[in-house]
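Lab channel / #folding
Pinned by the channel admin:
"Please post every new chain as: sequence first, then the structure tokens as a reply. Keep commentary short and put observations after the output so the thread stays searchable."

First post following the new format, from NK:
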Amino acid sequence: MSPGAAAYSFSRRGRTPRLLGVLICVYGALLAAIIFYNAARWLMALLALPTLPALYDLYADPTAGLRLDDAAIRWHSGRRHGELALDEIDHMRLDTRWDLSVRATAVLRSGRRIRLPDESLPPHRALEAALMARGLRVERHHFTQL
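Reply from TO:
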């Protein structure tokens, strides 16, 4: 491990301008379908149902993040929190999924695997660099089925 390396920290919030923009566009399109095409309101309401989790994130503004220092990796996502000492970790596994998202799993020396919550992860290249700066081995696996 590199002694004295600065702690790496990442956080994000649920309420973002991008989320607000997407919701405005979706609800605007549904409303336009009702007004201009006389679409069935029950059908438009059914199409709006998948947006409810995003609407909740806009309202509740949950936070998620990760902090990595020379002793431990800590993460939080909403009400969930976790912490692992770096000396417990054998290696970190970064899996690129078919949808191009990256999942991070801590493989412990005991063989146990702990998946870090997706929403608490920083961009994968920054995470990989921060992990390697602390002497952790990182395994990359592309397009595997989990």
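NK: The first helix runs from residue 17 to 37.
TO: also worth noting, The CA atoms of residues 30 and 38 lie 11 Å apart.
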